[in-house]
Amino acid sequence: MKCTGLILILSLMTATCFAQRTDTTSKGVKTKVVDGVNMTTNQNIIQNFSKSTDYTTLVNAINKAGLVETFESKGPITLFAPTNAAFAKLPAGELDSLLKPAHKFELSNLLTYHAIPGRVTAKDIARNIKEHNGSAVYTTLSGSKLSATIDANRNIVLTDENGGQSIIKTFDIEQSNGMVHIVTAVVVPKKRMI
């Protein structure tokens, strides 16, 4: 009986030692598990998101748009990062078209519309919404406006210039060069003529 109890205690201790933590700190470096991948505060946006199979479309699009240096820069930048599933919600053929060299400007405009200058946390966004009577407006790296509100379910909702909406589903993923929030849909700026 004592032996069985000891084995049970040892197995529980072993399981606890190997349990995955969502936020850890090691020598000043924080780690957050995002969609099964460890993202650390000592790596930049590109380094962290290149590790995940859920963001291959985003990383590929950043490469095709020639924006790798932007998202590897010192920043700080806050990125509203769409998952592969979010990109899949675009109208049929739109993403394939955007990834072609002839549409590099449009792709760059779309991706920089998902980024704002500074290290902006979810708490900062919520405070800004409250201070501006329920709707905060941000100027993105593309120069276009993106608004944020809080819905009835207490979600932060981003609304693009066309009325399209995306919910922030994961908050405050710290990067060495900024902050990332995961969004449920791609936000689209108004078409600009060049």
Structure characteristics:
alpha+beta, FAS1 domain, seven-stranded mixed sheet, three-stranded antiparallel sheet, 8 helices, globular, FAS1_dom_sf, signal, FAS1_domain, Adhesion/Biosynth-related, Putative surface protein with fasciclin (FAS1) repeats
Task: Walk me through what this model shows.
It comes from Mucilaginibacter yixingensis. This is Putative surface protein with fasciclin (FAS1) repeats. Residues 1-19 form the signal peptide. Keywords: Signal. Residues 42-187 form the FAS1 domain. By secondary structure, the chain is α+β, with helices and mostly antiparallel strands. It has a single domain, classed as FAS1 domain (Roll), CATH 2.30.180. 34% of the residues lie in helices and 28% in strands. It contains eight helices and ten strands. Strands 5-4-10-9-8-7-6 form a seven-stranded mixed beta sheet. A hairpin with a 5-residue loop joins strand 7 (145-150) and strand 8. The protein starts with a helix and ends in an 11-residue tail after the last strand. The model is unreliable at 1-23 (pLDDT under 50).
The CATH homologous superfamily name equals FAS1 domain
Q: Report the β-strand fraction as a percent range.
A: 25-35%
User: Helical percent range?
Assistant: 25-40%
Poorly predicted spans: 1-23
Number of helices: 8
Q: What gross morphology would you assign?
A: globular
Quaternary structure annotation: single chain
Quickly count the domains: 1
The overall average pLDDT, rounded, is 88
Q: Tell me about the largest β-sheet.
A: 7 strands, mixed
